């Protein structure tokens, strides 16, 4: 691929159009070297890798606004064939360049243009609304940054529960969307970060959090009776809510308090352990509206498939995450979810990791006697040896995956002209769960992002819809889109549709869910080849973090997973030691005993080359 992150990537609008075209055409990966088999020895065999990307299917995109002439759009875009970077608005999109550049030159030019924009805070004013908050790990709030505390940048925007009348949304044309395409950072996978989830803990521990900024999800919404309404979650929200009666407020607070320490009261739920969570809620003194809020907007679980214990665990997790960084349990990374893999890439590169984009691999080379993988052969006919090989599931050929059964995720991404629930603040990050119409089907998770998340242009919203697949993505998700949004063009819009937000542009696609597959399901893989899955359908990122740590521990059982990097003042450079020896200031046994490698590592010191420092 020519972008970071695989199916976790984010794209600008033009980059997404290129990605759509690639997946609709289903082109093969080019094998430039035909004689690579000459590199294989007699005592070796090969495991060929897939030449097609099969993780994305049924890609359909639609435009619901006025389109200018093709010449105008082309001129506004002036796009190279493919993006170079996957996220951060830093793709190889030379929109203002009259002359088309080679891919690498385009990437460098765009990085120079867009990266300073990110760093110097030239975002729209809405991006800096609210008070910035330092986010630290537990029990560190009183420590100074000099003591190694990890921080997350967080832009908070207060949610306003009351609905108000709003002005008519501005008219947006397709050429405007293309012209402002670099304002969009559109995620292939839609997720949020639980404030006490494994990924937040890992970002803080590894100090990768310094490479990213985050914004609070400001609202939890519910869809009931054909209307969208805000769900009170925290104690303050419950008591300030005008939707609930005083009796309902007491009922809700009593139940939520029980859920926080339900393990201490087994007598209250053990008779319903074999029942669904929905059935358990019906036995509590809760009104139908409260049951709906708890099931779909707090626990966010299935009405039929979720057991009582699973529902209580999900509710407790939600409640434990409240209040750590804001009034909801969730954070969203500015510039999109695709920033997260790139943040880890940056830290890895600082310590010598090398990334090769547009560099395909022909096969794995396996030693017949030991059964271990020895090397790979790339598309240049170059043989690269290593001790461990980590491969994403999509690169494995059908012959290796004959016994593997995959699930699918249905995804939709919409660009809209206004929010699903208008309030006095336009800068809202909202999560909404739409219950299934038919029992047995999955609920649809809707995440709506405003322009201050740096994922869409001003006066628009970016809406992600996700659910486990039963049919094609469009068949699964279009009924929900029709409930929430106006899909008609401006001329066709009827009076009753005027209140709904208008969809300006939409794309539907199915994505393979390869999570939860045992390594033994793959045929003939050597023991030192490890398989990573693509994104799963869950809202959080726990699956990916657990998988990464499990693979790391298999390879290096004695090492710590993602340890904190050393502070700059603790790093000892080779050139400093050489200079000290030349001037006669080198450490002697009398003045400073030589410490063991274990002692050195315990102090957090490391040795890096001068070239790494310059990088």
UniProtKB/TrEMBL annotation:
- One Gene Ontology cellular component: Rab-protein geranylgeranyltransferase complex
Swiss-Prot/TrEMBL keywords: Cytoplasm, GTPase activation, Transferase
Q: Name one GO biological process term.
A: small GTPase-mediated signal transduction
Q: Which residues form the RAE1/2 domain?
A: 409-537
Localization of this protein: Cytoplasm, Cytosol
Bias class Low complexity marks the residues at: 598-607
What does UniProt give as the signal peptide span?
A: none
Chloroplast listed as a keyword? no
Q: Which Pfam families match?
A: RAE1_2_domI_C
Gene Ontology molecular functions: GDP-dissociation inhibitor activity; GTPase activator activity; transferase activity
Specify residue ranges for compositional bias: Acidic residues.
571-580
Stretches for region Disordered: 111-163, 562-615
Polar residues compositional bias: what residue ranges?
136-148
Family in the record: Belongs to the Rab GDI family.
- Protein's name in the database: RAE2 geranylgeranyltransferase
Task: Tell me the organism.
Answer: Cepphus grylle (Black guillemot)
